[in-house]
Here is the input.
Amino acid sequence: MRHLITPLDFTVSELTQLFDLADDMREHQAQYAHLCEGKKLATLFYEPSTRTRLSIETAMLNLGGRTMGFSDAGSSSAAKGESVADTIRTISCFADIAAIRHPKEGAATVAAQFSRIPVINAGDGGHQHPTQTLTDLLTIRNLKGRLSSLTIGLCGDLKFGRTVHSLVNALARYQDIRFVFISPPELRMPDYITEYLDDQNIPYEEYIKLEDVIGRLDLLYMTRVQRERFFNEEDYVRLRNFYILDAAKMSLARNDMYILHPLPRVNEISVEVDNDPRAAYFRQVQYGVYVRMALIATLLELI
Ligand code: NCD
Here is the structure.
């Protein structure tokens, strides 16, 4: 039985197969409409979510399966003190596959250890968010036609943002990737990620000002400052508007530099940028559904 806890749980060639399947599902959606008939997906969300939970549920519904779950830990037995291990043992009696989001790093790993059904990590604290990464990679592959030979800027809260941690881990396995990390000094990429890049001899640079480097990027991945992971509100208030991508900054970027964002957006991308043809963050949401369809079908071994 397979789980998806980090993007590294799939090899590069397995990812290629997954993305090919996602593209086929996008082009021939009706052909897959009954694939998961009789199957149930449980969503166990201990943290807020709009896109990830509804995207995973939409994916299952598009495949003809059904969904159940909770979107608020307060309405589950977690409020009574039940452990993740006991909850997943229970859910294993009800559903065929589960997606879990939890504020604690490692929660999805624990769930997978005790589960009798495939577990999808839908975000564990500031650690990893592999289905967002699958979404990001499929989007990049479709926008740029490749996942290699790219200079990728990641900007914002690189310390607490789990999406960037997963994305860097995943992209590091492709050829000729160069990373540019753009953050305030307090929100730098964690050492465990930069050490991993050093070990693999993958080049990265660190910048504070977006204007200094935006003109060299093939892609710019913007992120929100993760208020809920800060230790104090004062630091958040000081850093929340550090980056605001607006039309003036976009005028320094190349014509083929796409902007991605896992969303939700707060202030870091001005709404005036939304109409720029390089703004790809809402297209990214759509790709997320197809890649999660492909993932569910793959983990349920229906393909
Ligand atoms: C991200 C997350 O939850 O980590 N959102 C998402 O799932 N698309 C990013 C964020 O919350 O900033």
In short: The chain has two domains: 7-128+287-299, 131-284. The pocket of N-carbamoyl-L-aspartate is lined by residues 51-52, 123, 129, 132, 162-163, 224, 262-264 (CB under 6 Å). The chain is about 35% helix and 15% strand.
